[in-house]
């Protein structure tokens, strides 16, 4: 049997394996989540745990549905803050990564500032930002940006530097311009790193938005959690946390789907 015939014969098997893998990636987490919720519900009922400590999932659902319109409004506010901070982190991180890649001076100048921004606790920084920018949405967006942009800069820089030096020397020997080198060599090699950074950044954006809403907000899921716990409405606070978790998962999966659709060649999976 020729090599080409073997490849054609193995193609259907490979497709079935990919479909089974995709199916398992959905069903296994879903079954696990359902099992955890059932065990949680049973434990709450069997051990009679007070609802102001750890409410049962059924009570969380019931209380959240009673104020579903308010929940939707707070969710939309938090989603807007998350997306604004995330997009701002992309807009600023990419030029910084390019400067660090091509300039030793900017690398030495920018890296200490990046580390400094990450060394400051965002909970301590948020009240100062409220004083500077006022009690508006801007401080929350800035906090979200500060939380998300650092891993994005690091991953983008690592990706742009991941191109083999031999390949860089080859294109330069062929008199390629810096733009040609960037778009044809460095950027394609950086795609997996960029999407890895985007996945981390979007989940951290959810955290950053909530931190900002804890400090200064009159809307948003973080604000709802603060006010609910203050009045011992624990089921509502758990409902808000569940929505935040769903937002993080959805945003993460959207970026993963974009990577699979736009850059399937950049995805490597060596697991059998």
Q: Would you give an account of this structure?
A:
With 272 residues, the chain is an all-alpha fold. It folds into two domains: 24-54; 68-263, MetI-like fold (Orthogonal Bundle). Helix content is 83%, strand content 0%. It has ten helices and no strands. The longest helix is centred in the N-terminal third of the chain and has 44 residues, at 3-46. The protein is flat and about 75 Å long.
What's the layout of helices and strands?
Blueprint (H helix, E strand, L loop, with lengths): L2 H44 L10 H10 L1 H35 L1 H16 L2 H12 L3 H24 L4 H9 L4 H38 L5 H10 L3 H29 L10
Helix pairs in contact: 2-10, 3-4, 3-6, 3-8, 3-9, 5-6, 5-8, 6-8, 8-9, 8-10, 9-10
Question: Can you tag this structure with a few keywords?
Answer:
272 residues, MetI-like fold, transmembrane helix, 2 domains, cell membrane, MetI-like_sf, single chain, mainly alpha
What is the helix content?
Answer: over 70%
How many domains would you count in the coordinates?
A: 2
What is the H level of CATH, i.e. the homologous superfamily of the largest domain? Answer: MetI-like
Shape: flat
Question: Which percent range describes the beta-strand content?
Answer: under 5%
H/E series, N to C? HHHHHHHHHH
What Rg is obtained from the alpha carbons, in whole angstroms? 23 Å
- Count of DSSP-assigned helices: 10
CATH architecture of the largest domain: Orthogonal Bundle
> Helix/strand-derived class?
mainly alpha
The parts where pLDDT drops under 50 for at least 5 residues are none
Summarize the biggest pleated sheet.
none
- CATH class identity of the largest domain: Mainly Alpha
Average pLDDT number: 85
């Amino acid at each position: 049997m020729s090599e080409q015939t073997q490849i054609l014969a193995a193609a259907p098997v490979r497709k079935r394996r990919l479909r089974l893998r995709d199916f398992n990636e959905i069903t296994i987490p879903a079954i696990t989540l359902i099992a955890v919720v059932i065990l949680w519900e049973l434990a709450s009922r069997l051990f009679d745990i007070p609802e102001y400590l750890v409410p049962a999932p059924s009570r969380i659902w019931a209380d959240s549905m009673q104020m579903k319109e308010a929940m939707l409004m707070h969710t939309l506010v938090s989603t807007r803050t998350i997306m604004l901070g995330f997009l701002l982190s992309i807009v600023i991180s990419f030029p910084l990564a390019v400067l660090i890649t091509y300039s030793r001076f900017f690398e030495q100048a920018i890296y200490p500032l990046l580390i400094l921004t990450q060394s400051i606790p965002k909970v301590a920084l948020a009240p100062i930002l409220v004083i500077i920018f006022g009690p508006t949405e801007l401080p929350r967006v800035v906090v979200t940006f500060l939380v998300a942009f650092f891993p994005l800069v690091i991953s983008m820089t690592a990706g742009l530097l991941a191109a083999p030096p031999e390949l860089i020397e080859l294109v330069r020997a062929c008199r390629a311009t810096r733009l040609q080198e960037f778009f044809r060599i460095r950027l394609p090699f950086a795609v997996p790193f960029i999407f890895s950074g985007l996945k981390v950044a979007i989940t951290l954006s959810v955290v950053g938005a909530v931190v900002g809403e804890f400090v200064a907000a009159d809307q948003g899921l973080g604000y709802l959690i603060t006010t609910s716990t203050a009045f011992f409405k624990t089921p509502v606070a758990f409902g808000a946390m569940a929505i935040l978790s769903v937002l993080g998962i959805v945003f993460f999966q959207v970026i993963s789907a974009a990577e699979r659709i736009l850059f399937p060649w950049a995805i490597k999976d060596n697991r059998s």
